[in-house]
Amino acid sequence: MGILRLDIQNVRGIRSLVLTPNGRNLVIWGPNGSGKSAVVDAIDFLLTGRVTRLTGKGTAGLSLVKHGPHIDSTPDIATVTALLEIPGVDRPVEIKRCIACPDVLECEEEIMPKLQPVLEVAGRGQHVLSRREILRFITAEAATRAEEIQALLDLSEIEEIRKALVRVRNDSDKDLDASVKALEAAKTAVNVTLQCKTFDPRAVSDTANRERAVLGGVPILAIKSSLLKSDLSLPKSAMGDQSINVTILEKDFTNLADLLAESNQSKLAEADRSLRALVESMRADPQALMALTRLRLIELGISLIDEGGACPLCEMPWPSGDLAMRLQKRLEVARISSEVSKKISGFSSTIGMQLAGATTSLEKVTASLKMASLEKYLAPLSLWINNIRTLKDALSDPLAKYPQPHLTPENVKCLVAPDQALSILEAARADLKAKYPKATPEQTAWDTLTRLEENLKALELASTSHSRSVLVQLRANFLLDAFVSARDEILGKLYEDIAERFTELYQELHGADEKDFTAAIRPEGPALRLEVDFYGRGAHPPHALHSEGHQDSMGVCLYLALAERLTKGRINLTILDDVVMSVDANHRRQVCSLIANHFPQRQFLITTHDKAWAHQLRQEGIVTSEGSVEFYNWSIATGPHVNLEADMWARIKDNLRRGDVSGAASFLRRGSEEYFAHVCEALEAQVKYRLDGRNDLGDYLPSAMGRYRSLLKKAKAATKSWSSQDQYEELNELESVVSSVFQRSNAEQWAVNASVHFNNWETLSVNDFEPVAEAFEDLFAVFSCQQCVSLLHLAKEGYNPVAVRCNCGAVNWNLVERS
Amino acid sequence: MTMPEHIELSPTDQILRKMIEHFQQNDAFDQKAIDEIRRLAETGRLSKPKDVSRSIAPSGGNDGNSAP
User: Fold this and answer.
1) Is A204 helix (H, G, I), strand (E, B) or coil?
2) Domain A2-127+571-645 has CATH 3.40.50.300
């Protein structure tokens, strides 16, 4: 996409402005506060419906509707219209957006599908580089550089997806842990009913069939809750109150008594001591903890090392086997930590299982006591249950939660086996027995099956949930692994290509002093390492040793390399918003070469407050005279005043039409002084030195003309020495034409001098001055290429001039004679 | 994901395309899950953990938490 015409009405600091770059480069120059960046904002708004400057960090209180339109304007008349070249469309396309309706882009409906990819890239902001962004990713820490670059190029979506997938993976891990615990708890409940220490499906089957036999049922083969009481009915001998079966409840009392038994308490205390010691040892070794968290990553890394031994993440080559060996060592540390972690889980599980069984039994007992209205026992037993639940929660994640300060070994013992617990249980059991007679064997069989049915239903649910959690965790892990692997592959290749292009571009800028410059951009997990060579003294971060100007250059080069890659085929426009502040004049000239040589098909919109650079861009042929626009004298009422350089000759003629010879002479003098100053620099013409630096046209013009003559003479001699007759003839003819132009301008120079320097212009008529202007217009043309309009400049090898060239190569005079 | 041919896919789209290629070869994913994830990728919702969790939940459930 390129801009042919831009019409801005009442946007930011601009009242009314029409620019016609015609798809070519445009430089807007002027002092700070002259409205240059408002043009950038307007393009930004047109393509995205927002003004980036009004969004993001530090923009609280700013809004598009309030601060987008000109301050004295309203949103409904704040518009940006552009005539664009769109990929795949063979005619110019007009699009328009109004701040009153920022989401509505006005354009022909049939064009929209072609425009959509352009708008998508524009929405990511990849086409604009501003000063405030340039150093962020050059100087950023490695850990944040990826985010900075991704934010600049709006690749942050990638990191957002990774974080989302990590979160899904972590959630699935937690769900799986919870489902494992729920499954264990369900098994424990079965164990309590069966009075077993460990879960055994055969014991479940045996108990079920035994109780079914009591009720006259046939054996069942599968352990399913739905089959337990199939073909059975409630025994006729059932008691009046069916809700409490003291025979079955006896199992819960026995279970709780077992928990409280001194021998069991000793075992629990021993497990608690071991658990505390292991948790303490892990916490005292942060590296062991870190190794534990990275275990999976290291395992995956080892499995992905290719045959050549290169790192699977950054593709950095390693001597064969070295990386695997190094990761293996880390894996050993991680595995030791993992073993400790498993032991911790084992001990916490040992304690936790007992607590789970006790909780189940206590819930049954308290429910029965409540039903029997034996409320005096409820308060102490409820407190006991709550204490056990607190302890269970702490043990669910021992590395994070256990032991808490109040959970000393003594307190834990009190929580698990409170004083008087046994006597309370004994009294409650006696009261229940007294209140409820012993149930018949049929009733007990029925109640046992009922309870087992309840246990199995919970177990079946827990089992199904666990199977789902296993699958979800498997998928979540694979999804994340697949994403990370794809990300590293795609971004690794992208960064590798970009590093290569970045190096090439930077060498164009600083090749004279850093010809062996190299750079490497490597993703390191979520971080991004950027290292550049410093004069052959090794690779360092860019801000470690390079000057601010060099960092600016790197910023521009890295941005151009990235943007070129990511906007390819969609947006052919690059906006550089005042980005070469710290780059010195010589290297700014190199920036011109870089744009000319490496991005000939791309349209650049450059804003700068640096007049010298604006002129360099013009003289190096990066922008034509039509593409050089000066903003000045900004005011709220008018916005910027605009001076189109292309108007110089038109303005001179306009002044002459109005009879204003002094005005015409003033334009000619000012323009000529600037122009020939740059000619002298480009051709290395000797200019009289003035301490105050106030050289004038009288200093520049003769030097420029003399230098041109001597270089042309040298070129002719060189051509003759190489026996290039055709070229010699061409140069001969050129010399003849140029001599004529020089003679005319020399003849007319008195008029310029007279009219400009000696202020006797009033003696000249319009008819006297017109030939002067025409002669100078021809003279200007001598020093520039007629094709690319760049200034002719001296090409050198070391200190020796070897050629006179323009940027496009149409002019190329060899200065070196055959030896 | 449905760009005209002359336009290069964005890095994000390239990554997602590659990722889908990877996990299509994994037995853990049924066609429904693959379609769901592809749909999330195409609609830019792969950065929404809840949507992703829902898409990888086995058929028969809707959020991975409730039993089938």
Assistant:
1) helix
2) yes
